[in-house]
Design a protein that fits this description.
The complex is a heterotrimer. Chain A has helices at residues 3-8, 10-23, 31-36, 38-49, 65-98, 128-154, 279-290, 303-312, 342-345, 392-398, 411-419, 421-424, 443-454, and strands spanning 100-101, 172-178, 181-187, 199-202, 204-208, 213-219, 224-227, 234-237, 243-247, 253-258, 271-277, 324-325, 329-330, 380-381, 386-387. Chain A is α+β, with helices and mostly antiparallel strands. In chain A, the strands form five sheets. Chain A has a five-stranded mixed sheet with strand order 4-3-2-6-9, with no helix packed on it. A three-stranded mixed sheet of chain A has the order 5-11-10. In chain A, helix 8 packs across helix 13 (443-454) and helix 11 (411-419) packs across helix 13. By secondary structure, chain B is mainly alpha-helical. In chain B, helix 4 packs parallel to helix 14 (407-437), helix 7 (220-252) packs antiparallel against helix 8 and helix 15 (443-469) runs antiparallel to helix 16 (486-518). Chain C has a single domain (11-43, 52-188), classed as Four Helix Bundle (Hemerythrin (Met), subunit A) (Up-down Bundle). In chain C, 77% of the residues lie in helices and 0% in strands. Chain C contains six helices and no strands. The chains are: A alpha+beta, B mainly alpha, C mainly alpha. Chains in contact: A-B, A-C, B-C. At the A-B interface, helix 1, helix 2, helix 4, helix 5 and strand 1 of A face helix 4, helix 9, helix 10, helix 11 and strand 1 of B. Strand 1 of chain A pairs parallel with strand 1 (368-369) of chain B, so a sheet runs across the interface. The structure holds heme-A (2 copies), dinuclear copper ion and copper (II) ion. Residues 62, 65-66, 68-69, 71-72, 92-93, 95-96, 99-100, 103-104, 162-164, 410, 414, 417-418, 422, 460, 474-475, 496, 499-500, 503-504, 507 of chain B line the site of one heme-A. One heme-A binds next to helix 3, helix 4, helix 14 and helix 16 of chain B.
């Protein structure tokens, strides 16, 4: 067993200790019980570590309007449950202790427990009033809880108007889950009348701080679930359906997420980040994303990399302005129709099929691959399982997402990704064309490709 | 398994010469009662079948537990690679499937089969051969499912879609191995077993009660098992439909879950959870029943509020049908539906709470004897409540969007399942062991294994609350170092091994205690070792083949207890008779019993063969189909219980005039029976 | 334990009732699936309205309904120990059932020729599955009836065994009632 490793992870412990000492005052009344059973200790720890700050997915550490609402809703319930918990456990222990009888000492070894007494306590068959009481009591309690929870529930995906001075008050995002990464279609003026997205990116969903961003969540293959715990609860991405959702962050930062619906092999490796930028940063990020590339001139140091990319990678990946696709030739900013529009993901009750045009015949096999036009502006890749920048870890605190510098790439992992991606992230290649295959590139090709990819800012 | 071996009582068939076989059917002669494996294979005795259900259930529990241990090992540290993603997905799927369908349901069925007829004073179930058929079908289906581990390579073709098998991830496109076929067909087969068993037991409860045993005099356990069977009766066809659709999709290119043709993946979810939620009450109600027998017995008081216990059980059964979509709060079923199911879910806490408080009230003011069964039963009250409370926190749909598919849910359902069901069943084992096998399980080992189990259980699943709320997802094969999951996962893994140790201690206990008994070191249990209350204690231990020597005329609830105890003028409880005086000694050999039969086994054996046929080669289907037909044919033309009697007058074998036998003879019987 | 059961109904009969209760949910599930999918067809596919030949199916439904009557006649005849009549009614029930199944097979082939296969679209898949399950139920019923008929020919079906026929009758009625529901939902109200 790797207990030494356990010891190293002292951050948790310190945290725990800090929390424990800080919070004991509040806990003084149940403290008696803490000594009683081991169980209570567990539960207490669970309340106390609930908000340990070293857990990036911590659902009890809200950073957005919706998640705070959920927190406010559930915290009183935790307290009620805690009270019932203490009451029931206390009652079990108390009754068990008070009314127990011991078998005579000399009988203790006997197999049937060794009780010989023929005494009986009073034979009570029930108490109608009491029983009605504990039927009605919880009923009323639950009714009260129901009452004040349902209102919130019905408004869970409501969108507040954007704050003053937002440059893109209408921005909405179509979130497309697929095996095993997330794709984001940005509609800067909302999806209502748009026929195609303004630009498409993957893995990092970037939002302006303080603004409710409406999401439309769907999938190209199996069911996934979109979840940024610190910003809101989760919503399943169901193929053939579009589910509305909303995220909002009160603070600038990067928030981890995880696909939570079991979606096959790489489910564990299907993560994402939400990045909240200031309104200005968001605008400049958007401006950059809208740019399309032009094929590099032959004298460019990355020319060779680009050519390699076109020959090896463009059958799956798109770089706007560089790679050609069946639909609409070279993909440009105003030629995104190969991504379809939101209608194409909607349920086909009218009999039309939502065949995406992306990956040839089957949008259902996730033959699709991330759009790499601005690959280097993302902090993570391949279902956010890998960090592109070592210092990305710190972004959460500083918010300098758009200032990530290209000279400090996590080059090594990117190289191994290109060398043999199925080795670093389980996928179903080559049989089923899901995930990225091993392309058997030479080391030299990999170097060139990585250089090229890094230049895609 | 140890449990099976030690039932060595001779099978007493009907008296006299009729022991000889009936008319030969084809090449086969009808099997006869006797000793050894044949006796078990062809038995139609509900007790033997119950024991076999129990043994198989325990075996599958250990197998499912071993899967769990591998899951825990893989998750003990971040970035572990003990199991690859492929294998992990199969292992956790098999864990869920085996535990739910092959361990928990059959263990419930074990109690139901063994105890229902005894508790209502019947001689057997309504359809004894059908009962054997259900068992063999269940076993065949279970082995069929397990065989997916080996067939076509080691861990190549086991189901990998999770026990909930959400479409379209289970389509051929996304799960091209044979695993999901094994899943769908295997569960279809075990489903047949549950359905047939349910019909049988429902008819038994409705129609086979002793005179005077009205519904409201039935023991709480019988009531809970009865409700369980009703739930199975109505839930099984729903999962059957779902599995049919899935199978047709995979084998015959149907479109039910083909999104490209416009199918709605949520159809599967609805069908699965309409079955799935009643299913969880199918799992828990038997255990509720078990502890409703144990707690009064050892508190030495009647159950508190019998009608409330019964009606809250019925209420749970009913309400269980109206809450399924609480498993789909994040699926996008629309806010109104979510709100409705959220509210209905909250109210299911009420009848369950009534039960908890009634158990506490039963203990209140009692003279509690903390034997091993009582320890287990008490721990159910405490541990189940924890799981129930986290259940209530899920029921707030808005909050559940943070919780669903995290380890917080895993914590919830293992608290209700392990803390509610498994602990309760272990209590039941200790409680009825002397009745079933005639000897006691060691209290000493029992108590120590209890503590190991309860502590291990809390160490395993308690930390999962924290992990879940900290954002650890379910069904993930790995996690990363920086996510803050390291410590509690390690704790949880250690806890799981404690549970394994405790389980092993239980198995050891059965062996050690049996040895001690055989060596004469421990006393025979006698008919009523715990001074219990219901009718099963009113006959010898182990229970004779024919259950009771004579029909029991029931006048009160807890009839047996009232025959032992009465009140004097002061209103104190005083002994009227000893258990030995009241109980039957099993010496009546003049009882007409259903004869053993080959046919249930033959017919049942056909089903898995059809299953393999559907997956691999249709010719096997023909073979399996012929077996089934042949089995059914032989069955239909075999007289029910008496080879020589006319087929219409079965059940007529009530012998009259058997009197109570003297106490000393009772003792004789006990000594000689083992 | 004794011939007298608690409820006074025989176990076998009660068992059939209980089973039919369960079977209701089987059809419930299939019918719901059909309802969900009946309109999901490709743009060029024929839908339910164009496919169905209501007069034809009405006739075969009527045939099935009549068989419910004949099975009752068979039972009453048997009760009166009028073996010959009961045999005739039994056989006619089975034949009526067989006509219904035959009609269904014919209908299926027609649909298939018109381009609606099992895998064509969701409507086809759901339709064939639902009606197919019902057809299998009828077929099983016919097998029951025929084995009763054979029993009767061998002189083993007398008023003493009347209850067996009654139980099969229960099943037969149930299958009929289910068909009425299916016919109404699937054929008469395709919208
Ligand atoms: C034995 C099995 C069992 C039992 C009995 C229960 C009981 C309950 N369950 Fe659980 N549940 C499961 C097994 C079970 N569950 C399983 C296996 C899953 C996961 C399936 C999967 O996804 O794989 C699940 C998942 C699950 C979910 C879905 C979570 C998700 O995936 O998002 C929800 C949501 O509401 C839920 C709720 C409840 C509730 C409210 C109860 C209630 O019945 C509990 C009632 C009990 C109490 C409340 C305690 C005692 C009461 C009192 C002491 C009275 C006073 C209390 C109050 C007034 C609060 N359960
Ligand atoms: C009856 C139901 C049941 C029971 C009893 C258990 C018991 C256990 N479960 Fe299970 N579990 C489920 C039903 C159950 N589970 C279900 C339905 C799921 C969801 C699956 C899905 O998502 O599809 C699940 C999922 C699940 C997960 C989540 C997997 C994931 O999402 O990735 C985990 C993780 O730790 C887990 C752990 C355990 C453990 C440690 C036990 C332990 O309690 C097991 C203890 C038992 C043993 C350890 C026995 C072994 C004994 C020996 C080895 C001794 C042998 C000795 C001799 C024979 C002499 N379970
Ligand atoms: Cu995508 Cu899990
Ligand atoms: Cu549920």
């Amino acid at each position: 067993m790797n207990l030494s490793k356990l010891g190293q992870n002292s951050r948790i412990k310190q945290n725990l200790a800090r929390r424990l000492s800080k919070d004991t005052d509040m806990q003084s009344s149940p403290r008696r019980y803490l000594k009683w059973t081991f169980l209570c200790v567990i539960t207490a720890l669970f309340f106390l570590t609930g908000c340990a700050s070293n857990a990036p997915l911590d659902s009890l550490d809200p950073a957005g309007r919706k998640s705070e609402g959920i927190s406010d809703l559930i915290n009183p319930i935790f307290i009620i449950a805690g009270i019932v918990f203490v009451f029931i456990q206390g009652a079990v222990l108390f009754i068990g202790w008070k009314y127990r009888v011991r078998a005579p000492k000399e009988n203790e070894e006997t197999f049937d427990g060794g009780y010989t007494d023929e005494e009986f306590p009073e034979q009570i068959h029930g108490h109608f009033a009491a029983e009605i009481g504990w039927t009605i009591g919880p009923t009323i309690l639950m009714a009260a809880i129901a009452l004040f929870s349902v209102g919130f529930l019905l408004n869970l995906d409501d969108v507040d108007p954007a704050p003053e001075g937002a440059e893109y008050p209408e921005v909405e995002v179509l979130v497309v889950g697929q095996q095993w990464w997330w794709e984001y279609h940005y509609y800067l003026d909302g999806v209502e009348d748009a026929s195609q997205p303004d630009f498409v990116t993957a893995n990092d969903i970037v939002i302006p701080v303080g603004q409710d961003i409406k999401l439309y969540i769907t999938s190209r293959d199996v069911i996934h679930s979109f979840w940024i715990p610190r910003l809101n609860g989760k919503k399943d991405a169901v193929p053939g359906r579009i589910s509305p959702w909303v995220i909002q962050s009160n603070e600038v930062g990067r928030f981890a997420g995880q696909c939570t619906e079991f979606c096959g092999l790489s489910h564990a490796y299907m993560r994402m980040y939400a990045v909240a930028l200031t309104q200005e940063d968001f605008s400049s990020w958007v401006d950059n994303q809208k740019n399309i590339r032009e094929p590099l001139p032959e004298n460019d140091p990355n020319y060779e990399g680009e050519q390699l990319f076109i020959t090896n990678c463009s059958r799956c990946h798109v770089i706007n302005g560089v790679t050609e696709r069946d639909v609409g030739g070279v993909v440009t900013a105003d030629n995104m129709e190969m991504y379809g529009n939101i209608e194409e993901y909607r349920n086909h009750a009218d009999g039309t099929l939502s065949q995406g045009k992306y990956a040839g015949e089957a949008n259902l096999t996730a033959g699709a691959a991330p759009n790499l036009t601005h690959f280097a502006t993302r902090s993570s890749y391949a279902g956010s399982f890998f960090e592109l920048y070592p210092e990305a870890q710190e972004i959460s605190d500083q918010g300098d997402y758009i200032n990530l510098t290209t000279n400090n790439f996590a080059r090594g992992t990117l190289e191994s990704w290109l060398r043999n991606s199925p080795e670093v992230k389980p996928n179903a290649q080559p049989e089923q064309a899901r995930g990225m295959p091993n392309l058997n590139l030479s080391e030299n090709q990999i170097d060139l490709l990585v250089d090229y990819l890094i230049s895609l800012d | 398994m140890a449990i099976v071996e030690n039932e060595e009582t001779t099978l007493e068939l009907e008296s006299g010469e009729e022991k000889s076989a009936g008319k030969p059917l084809g090449a086969l002669t009808r099997p006869q009662g006797g000793n050894g494996w044949k006796d078990w294979l062809f038995t139609v005795d509900h007790k033997k079948i119950g024991i076999m259900y129990g043994a198989a259930g325990l075996l599958f529990f250990v197998i499912g537990g071993v899967y769990a241990l591998f899951v825990r090992l893989q998750l003990s540290r971040p970035g572990n690679s003990i199991l690859s993603a492929e294998t992990y997905n199969q292992v956790f799927t098999m864990h869920g499937v085996v535990m739910v369908f092959l361990a928990a349901i059959p263990l419930g069925a074990a109690f139901a089969n063994y105890l229902i007829p005894l508790q209502i004073g019947a001689r057997d179930v309504a359809f004894p051969r059908l009962n054997a058929f259900s068992f063999w079908v269940f076993l065949g289906g279970g082995l069929f499912l397990l065989s997916s581990m080996f067939i076509g390579g080691w861990w190549e073709n086991a189901p990998d879609g999770g026990w909930f098998a959400y479409s379209p991830n289970t389509g051929v496109l996304f799960s091209p191995s044979k695993g999901i076929d094994f899943f769908a067909i295997g569960l279809q087969i075990t489903g047949i077993a549950s359905l047939v068993g349910a019909i049988n037991l429902i008819v038994t409860v409705l129609n086979m009660r002793s005179p005077g045993m009205t519904l409201m005099k039935m023991p709480v356990l019988t009531w809970m098992l009865f409700i369980t069977q009703l739930l199975l009766l109505f839930a099984m066809p729903v999962i059957s439909v779902a599995l049919f659709l899935l199978t047709f999709d995979r084998l015959f290119d149907a479109n039910f879950f083909n999104v490209a043709e416009g199918a709605d993946p949520l159809l599967w979810q609805h069908l699965f959870w309409i079955f799935g939620h009643p299913e969880v009450y199918v799992l828990i109600l038997p255990s509720f029943g078990v502890i409703s027998e144990i707690i009064p017995t050892f508190s030495r008081k009647p159950i508190f509020g019998y009608p409330f216990m019964v009606f809250s059980g019925i209420a749970i059964g009913f309400m269980g049908w109206g809450v399924w979509a609480h498993h789909m709060f994040a699926s996008g079923v629309g806010p109104v539906a979510v709100a409705a199911f959220s509210v209905s879910t909250m109210f299911i806490a009420v009848p369950t709470g009534v039960k908890i408080l009634n158990w506490l009230a039963t203990m209140w003011g009692g003279r509690i004897r903390f034997t091993t069964p009582m320890l287990y039963a008490t721990s159910v009250v405490a541990m189940f409540t924890i799981g129930g409370l986290s259940g209530v926190t899920h029921s707030l749909a808005a909050a559940d969007t943070q919780q669903t598919d995290t380890y917080y849910i895993v914590a919830h359902f293992h608290y209700v399942i392990f803390g509610g069901i498994i602990l309760g069943f272990f209590g039941g084992f200790y409680f009825w062991w002397p009745k079933i096998f005639g000897y006691f399980l060691s209290e000493k080992i029992g108590k120590s294994s209890f503590w190991v189990m309860v502590i291990g259980f809390n160490l395993t699943f308690g930390p999962m609350h924290i992990l879940g709320l900290q954002g650890m997802s379910r069904r993930i094969q790995t996690y990363s170092e920086g996510q803050g999951f390291d410590l509690w996962n390690m704790v949880s893994t250690l806890g799981a091994f404690m549970i394994a140790i405790a389980t092993a201690m239980f198995v050891a206990n059965t062996i050690i205690s049996r040895r001690a008994f055989k060596a004469g070191k421990t006393p025979a249990a006698g008919p009523d070792p715990w001074d219990a209350r219901s009718l099963e204690w009113m006959t010898a231990s182990p229970v004779p083949e024919h259950n009771f020597d004579e029909v029991i005329q029931v006048e009160r609830q807890d009839e047996f207890w009232h025959r032992k105890w009465g009140r004097n003028e002061e209103g104190q409880v005083v002994r009227l008779a000893t258990a030995e005086e009241v109980a039957h000694d099993g010496s009546n050999t003049n009882v007409h019993l259903p004869a053993p039969s080959y046919w249930p086994l033959v017919a049942a054996a056909g089903l898995p063969i059809v299953g393999y046929g559907l997956i691999y080669n249709l010719w096997l289907c023909v073979l399996g189909g012929l077996l089934i037909l042949g089995g059914l044919y032989g069955w239909v033309f075999e007289p029910v219980d008496d080879p020589n009697a006319d087929s219409h007058d079965h059940h007529d074998d009530q012998t009259e005039g058997t009197e109570l036998v003297e106490g000393d003879e009772v003792l004789d019987q006990e000594v000689t029976s083992e | 334990m004794s011939d007298e059961t608690t409820l006074g109904v025989s176990n076998d009969k009660l068992g059939m009732w209980v089973f039919l209760g369960s079977d209701c949910l089987l059809f419930g599930g299939l019918i719901s699936t059909y309802m969900l999918y009946k309109d999901r067809i490709g743009p060029d596919d024929l839908g339910a309205e164009e496919m169905f030949d209501i007069p034809f199916t009405s006739v075969s439904s009527f045939v099935l309904l009549m068989s419910s009557l004949t099975v009752v006649l068979a039972i009453t005849a048997l009760r009166r120990n009028d073996i010959r009549r009961s045999r005739i009614w039994l056989l006619s029930t089975a034949i009526l059932g067989a006509i219904f199944v035959g009609g269904q097979v014919y209908e299926f082939t027609v649909f298939y020729r018109e381009g609606l296969g099992y895998t064509t679209n969701l409507f086809g898949t759901a339709f064939f599955t639902l009606t197919g399950f019902h057809g299998v139920h009828v077929t099983v019923g016919i097998i029951f009836l025929m084995s009763m008929y054979i029993q009767s020919m061998r002189g083993k079906l007398t008023s003493v065994q009347e209850e067996r026929l009654e139980i099969i009758g229960l099943y037969w009625h149930f299958v009929d009632v289910v068909w009425i529901v299916i016919f109404t939902i699937v054929y008469l109200f395709p919208q």
